[in-house]
Amino acid sequence: MPLLVDAGILYALADRTDTWHAPSIEYLERVRPTLLAPVTVIPEAAYLVHTRLGAPAELGLIRGFLNREIAVEPLADADFSRAAALMATNPDLGFTDCTVVAMAERLALTTIATTDRRHFGRVRPRHTTHFVLVP
User: Fold this and answer.
1) Among 17, 35, 57, 100, which residue carries the largest CB count within 10 Å?
2) Beta carbons of 34 and 71 less than 8 angstroms apart
3) What is the pLDDT of residues 30-77, one digit of tens each?
């Protein structure tokens, strides 16, 4: 089963000084999941990496997608509809986070790799009582 990742985890993997870096690496080395990124998290992660770590680090992130170290999942029409519904009832959640939730629901994934406990911990998905947030 793939592990859905958000932009925060992708950033933490790139930044060795981030407090989430070591726990993320340890978790991924132990579990060895197939990483799956919603297409919407790529621009957000790339922006964070570029502005905080520089162009070479951003290129490294993009090479991870090119080398298929991280699979990319496109948005389905249903994901847009569900994301809009989530945004309407959760105004503090942005579009990107809502698409992660919508995709998790569509793919029946219950675990999300994220550094954002505040938002993803509050969401009540349709297909399970709550998300398991790792690491």
Assistant:
1) 100
2) yes
3) 999 999 999 999 999 999 999 999 999 999 999 999 999 999 999 999
